Automatic annotation (TrEMBL):
Keyword set, alphabetical order: Repeat
Mapped Pumilio repeat ranges: 15-56, 57-92
GO biological process, one term: post-transcriptional regulation of gene expression
Protein name according to UniProt: PUM-HD domain-containing protein
Pfam families: PUF
GO molecular function terms attached to this record: mRNA binding
Species, as recorded: Strombidinopsis acuminata
Annotated Gene Ontology cellular component terms: cytoplasm
All residue ranges annotated as the PUM-HD domain in the record: 1-100
Length: 100
């Protein structure tokens, strides 16, 4: 149901979803059903001014997400769906982990 709602949201409704969900996006992404909903949210947000907000909610946990079976799908969707200039947060986090 949540995934279907993402397809129907207006820009204002997407903003409301982000207002409510941003603080929990990482936790939601670690759940099988939650990861699917977050992937749908990424698809819905990709051509909106809300991309930086979505990135901000995920960027501190990129490495943890990549190590989780469900979270990894969320990171992959970011790389597939978000504009190229929004990918840097993933590359920075992974590079920092390799250096450490």
């Amino acid at each position: 149901l949540c995934q279907k709602l993402m397809d129907m949201c207006t820009p204002n409704q997407l903003q409301l979803v982000l207002d409510k969900a941003c603080g929990s996006l990482v936790r939601i992404s670690l759940n099988m059903h939650g990861a699917r909903a977050v992937q749908k949210l990424i698809d819905a947000v990709r051509n909106t001014p809300y991309v930086p907000r979505l990135v901000g909610a995920l960027e501190s946990s990129v490495v943890a997400l990549t190590k989780d079976a469900n979270g990894n799908h969320v990171v992959q969707r970011c790389l597939e769906a978000l504009p190229c200039d929004a990918h840097a947060f993933i590359f920075r986090a992974v590079a920092a982990e390799v250096i450490d």
